[in-house]
Each structure stands twice: as C-alpha cells, then as structure tokens.
Amino acid sequence: MSLKNNSSVSKVENEEEEGKVSLLDLPDLPLECILGHLSPSELCSVAAVCTSLRDTSRSDHLWKKHMERKWGKVFGDAAYRQWKCHVASKAREKISNHQNQKGLFAFLHGDFRPLVWMKAKSEKGTRSSNSLPEDSFMALYLSLESGKFWFPAQVYNRENGHAGFMLSCYDAQLCYDSRSDTFLARYSPHGRWTTEENIRWDRLRVPPIASSPHALHISDCLDDLRPGDHIEIQWRRNKEFPYGWWYGVIGHLEQCQGHGNHCRCHNNDMVILEFMQYSAGSRWRQTMIDRKHHIEKGNEIDGFYGGIRKLHNREEITRWKKLWPTKTVVHD
C-alpha cells in the first residue's frame, strides 16, 4: 500500500514538472514581450542567467526603447554621432594595443608556439562571445547611466541661473550622476572649461539646430516676424566666444500704437526684439535689426546678435515661460 502511494505521488510530481514552462521554452515573440516589460536593471539580471537569455536581453530592440524613454529628450543626433566616434576610437585603440602586444611577443620569443597561440585564440573567442558589444544600445545606456560617457546637449539658464545668463541656452558637454539624478556640465566660453554641478533634467534640451555653437545660423524667418512672435536669437560676448540662444519676443516699433488692426510693424524693414526679463532702461532690454540685411550685428561692448529662430512649437514656448525669473533682472 505504501509503495503504491509513493508511486502515485511520484507520478503527480512528474506531471507537474512536465507542465512547467521555462522562459527558454517560449517562442521569440512572447519572450520579447515579457522582456519588454522589464526595467534596465532587471534585463541585466536576466542577461546573467544563461547564454540564450543573455543574447536576447541585450538586443538593441529592447534597449532602444529604454534609451528613448529616459534619454530621448536630452540625447540627440549630435550626441549619438559623438558616441559612434567614441566607439570607433576605442576599437582603433584595441587594435593598436593588440598589434603592439603581438609584436612584443614575437620579439621576446622569436619562435612559433602553436599551443600558446591556440590558447590565446580560445580565450579571445570566449571573451568576445561573453563581452557586451560596444556599439550596442545597451552599452550606450549603461555608459550614460554610469557617467562614463560625456555627451553634447544644451543647458538653460547656465551657472545656476546667473543674471548674466537668464533665459538663455548654451552648449555644453554633460555627464550624468545617477546618485543625485542630476548632471555635471562643462562649458567652453573661450580657451578654458568652466563647470556646473547639480543640473536637473528640466534644464536640458537637444540642440534644435545641428551646427557648431561658433557657427552663425542663417535665419529663414525674418520676413515673417510680427509683434508678439516668440523667438530665440544667437548672442555672444565677442567673436571668439560661442553663441548661446536667448529667448525674446518681437515688439512694436516706437511709432506704432500697438493696436492689432492698425499695426503695420510687419511691413517695416526694422524689427524690434524685446527681452522682457530685463528691467526697463537696461541696455539688454531691447535691440533692433534690419530684416532685409540682418546677418550679425553688434560690437565688443554690447556683444553680437546672430541668427534668429521663430518658435512655432507651443511646448518650446511653454518651457521658456516656466524658466521665467520670479523677479525682473536688473542688469545694465
């Protein structure tokens, strides 16, 4: 009777074992759906289970989504190009180091040792199959999270909202600090780097124009500018400094009464740019450009005004308004 009961229990246990489904038993599509709901840290844990799950958990398809979700608003095309250059540079460095080691080995031994060579090849193959591809989205994500990779972006109100940079946006190299969930920025105004710590996510953006901060933006909106339009304009202290982007609005000419139906400012070649964050009477409060001939205007005292972007995107305008100072900036 006891043997019969034991046999029945064993049979039930075997049936239960056979009914269990492992992740490895799933087809590719359901497995990817499950992995797609995991966090980056959970994907890293799954990747450590076995070779099959490692390869699936590292797929660009999964990690690209995490990149877009967390980094999409601050990591743009310029940053990705810099990453590709970084990866290519590391690859060249590895090749160079390998060639140097190979030459040193041949010089020291002066003969061919098949067993040593086969062992080295075997170890290299094992390392390469286990190591994370350096050009993968997972490698990029982890490099950003760890702060090992500096990337280009733009910072609003640099230097902690210093009055001299209020409602501006400047190019910088950025490094992420996962402990504080903030960034460290390096600016290069002219010849030397300056740094700023504890920059929040909401002070960063992807550069809206793919060009060097030293390059003059060729404006394509000058004929369309009307009072009330929101704009960004390039400005720099002198010709050796990089441009920053400054927020402003188009104002009415002095002879205009400012009434909508009677305003003819848009028919005039001269355009008023207003920077309302500065107090009335400040030399930074207002400037005037010629829409027909404007390229860059200014001098070594007042700085140089460059290209203009007309803001059409409501999200961009709202973001500038959220950065508006609580008090009017007194800055002569």
From TrEMBL:
Gene3D superfamilies recorded: 1.20.1280.50
Boundaries of every F-box domain copy: 20-66
SMART domains to which the protein is assigned, alphabetical: FBOX
PROSITE patterns: FBOX
PANTHER family registered for this protein in UniProt: ESTS AU081301(E20138)
UniProt name for this protein: F-box domain-containing protein
